[in-house]
Each structure stands twice: as structure tokens, then as C-alpha cells.
From TrEMBL:
Keywords: Oxidoreductase. InterPro entries: NAD(P)-bd_dom_sf (IPR036291), Sc_DH/Rdtase_CS (IPR020904), SDR_fam (IPR002347). GO terms for molecular function: 3-oxoacyl-[acyl-carrier-protein] reductase (NADPH) activity. Its EC number is 1.1.1.100. The keyword Glycosyltransferase does not apply. It comes from the Bacteria. Transmembrane segments: none annotated. The keyword Metal-binding does not apply. This is 3-oxoacyl-[acyl-carrier protein] reductase. It holds the Pfam family adh_short_C2. Belongs to the short-chain dehydrogenases/reductases (SDR) family.
Length: 275
């Protein structure tokens, strides 16, 4: 990644922060952007303290003019963007934030979800593509979710937005792959961010569910970031238009079969089986 310029959205926390740290550790100059400017600044300071190169910018990905200005500013400060990680999502709207079911869905909630999760990545890609096309190389990585491929009962807007993002991923890959710009997505399963780790979220039970269905423990933000860095790099130069699940195998399973066969003892005994 040496000599590369990367822009990461939603990089003030969770997976985006891990991606910014990893891309910087691998040598890229990183634009750490987030709606929460102070969070972006904190991550930028950590990167610089660790010897990396980074700038922090407040950015609402749904704001067309702000996206244009941000990309121009990053190009002026760090150089043309070669890697774009579209990671920001309106996560606060999904888990208990109103995105619960179609029957009670407000049109405003739907529009706000789509604005951040789909319009945002399109605006960022539109702004970053000209320099990538001019250079004849570039890599866009979008953060999707396992929720794009299978319903979760309680996040229809979120799931639909991630499915749309995966479609956008393929459109960009098909159209600009021939001129050297790749576009791929990662689809994380449940990842242990600070929010997911937080009190009252039932971490022990989550671990037990994963133990019952996959050979893997819950993922960490850096485990997703490593895959983002791979897709962003030339090591993945023949990988274009894919959605790569990073979920420890959870999406490969059909959990209902385990349920039918009663193979969920680890879940039932979670308080005693797992620490
Ligand atoms: N954590 C998981 O288990 C998980 C699983 C699957 C997919 N994802 C996806 O991973 C990505 C990162 O999620 P996370 O878990 O790290 O969440 P997070 O809530 O920790 O981080 C999201 C970040 O996006 C920022 N953000 C929100 N709205 C924004 C906007 N309009 N413009 C710019 N930034 C904005 C927030 O300030 C926050 O820093 C998201 O796309 C999410 O859908 C997460």
C-alpha cells in the first residue's frame, strides 16, 4: 500500500476505524472521514502516533456537495485517491433505531437509511472514479452485510440497502473494470465492535450461538479490515465484482437444520458452557 492514498468513510469507529488503521499500517496515506468529526480526529491521531500518515475530515456521506468537497480536499492534501472504502452506514437507525418491520416502517426512516447506505457510496464512487480512471487503476471496497443475502426479521430497510449496495458494487465493477478500476464488497457477519460489545447486548449468548453454528468465534473489526486491505491491494488485482463474506462461515450454514435436530445445546447452556 506504500504510495497509495485511501479514503475511508465511517472511519471514526468500529470496522471503518480498523480499516483506516490497517491501510495506514500497510503504508497508505489515509483520509479518515466520519459524520462525527471528533471520532475521525481521534483515529487519525492514533494512526499518526503509530507512525502512519493520515488526515481527518468530518463528512456526511449523504451530502452531495460535502462529498465532492471532501474528495477534492483529500486529493489536494494527500494526492489522487486510489482506494475508496465505502464503509459508513446509518447503523443507529437499524438496531432499535426504528427499522423494525414493514408494517410500521416510516418512509422517513427508509429514505434516511437509503441516503446513507446507498446514495452515500454512489456519491463517493462518482467523485473518486475520475482520478482512478485517469490513473488506469483503483479499488473501491464497499461494506455490505450478511443482512443483504438473508432476512433478519427486524431490519428490512437495512437489509434492502445492503442488497442495493451489492448491486451497485457489481455495476461499478462491470463498467469500470475494463479501465482498471475494481469494485468489490465485504459482507461481515456479526462483528465485535464497541457497540456490539456494549452492556445489555448479550455477548455471552451471541458467542454461544456462533459456537453452535460455526467453527469460528465472533469476528473482530480488524479481521474485516484485513480482507478490505486485501481487496484494496494489487494482490487482489484479478478479483472484481465479488461480495466476500467475512462471517466465520455463519452464512454458509442453515441454522434451522441445527435447530430442527436439537443441536443447540451450546446455546441453551450458554451461561455455564462459555465464559
Ligand atoms: N458490526 C457488525 O456486526 C456489522 C455486521 C455487518 C455489516 N456491518 C457494516 O459495517 C459498517 C461499519 O459498521 P460498524 O459496526 O463499524 O458500525 P459503527 O456504528 O461502529 O460505525 C459506523 C460509523 O459510521 C458513521 N456514520 C453514520 N452515519 C454517517 C454518515 N451519514 N456519514 C458518514 N459517517 C456516518 C458513524 O458515525 C460511525 O462512526 C457498516 O456499513 C455496517 O453496516 C457491521
Amino acid at each position: 500500500m506504500a504510495g497509495e492514498v485511501a479514503l475511508v468513510t465511517g472511519a471514526g469507529s468500529g470496522i471503518g476505524a480498523a480499516s483506516a488503521r490497517r491501510l495506514a499500517a500497510e503504508g497508505a496515506a489515509v483520509a479518515v472521514t466520519d459524520l462525527a468529526g471528533a471520532s475521525a480526529q481521534r483515529v487519525r491521531d492514533e494512526i499518526v502516533a503509530a507512525g502512519g500518515q493520515a488526515v481527518a475530515l468530518a463528512l456526511d456521506v449523504a451530502d452531495e456537495a460535502a462529498v465532492r468537497d471532501c474528495v477534492a480536499r483529500v486529493a489536494a492534501e494527500l494526492g489522487p485517491i486510489g482506494v475508496l472504502h465505502n464503509n459508513a452506514a446509518a447503523t443507529a437507525l437499524s438496531g432499535g433505531g426504528g427499522d423494525a418491520e414493514v408494517l410500521t416502517m416510516s418512509a422517513e426512516l427508509w429514505d434516511a437509511t437509503m441516503a446513507v447506505n446507498v446514495r452515500g457510496p454512489m456519491l463517493l464512487a462518482r467523485a473518486a472514479l475520475p482520478a482512478m480512471i485517469a490513473a488506469g487503476r483503483g479499488s473501491i471496497v464497499n461494506t455490505s452485510s450478511g443482512a443483504a443475502a438473508a432476512a433478519e426479521h427486524l431490519r428490512p430497510a437495512y437489509g434492502a440497502s445492503k442488497a442495493a449496495l451489492e448491486s451497485l458494487t457489481r455495476s461499478i465493477a462491470a463498467r469500470y473494470g475494463p479501465v482498471g478500476v475494481r469494485c468489490n464488497a465485504v459482507a461481515p457477519g456479526l462483528v465485535l465492535t464497541d457497540t456490539v460489545r456494549g452492556p445489555g447486548r448479550g455477548l455471552r449468548r451471541m458467542r454461544a450461538v456462533f459456537a453452535a453454528h460455526t467453527p469460528s468465534p465472533l469476528g473482530t473489526p480488524d479481521e474485516v479490515a484485513r480482507v478490505v486491505a486485501f481487496l484494496a491491494s494489487d494482490a487482489a488485482r484479478y478479483v472484481n465484482g465479488v461480495v466476500l463474506r467475512v462471517d466465520g462461515g455463519m452464512g454458509a450454514a442453515q441454522p434451522y437444520l441445527a435447530d430442527l435436530l436439537g443441536r443447540h445445546a451450546a446455546v441453551e447452556n450458554a451461561p455455564t458452557v462459555l465464559s
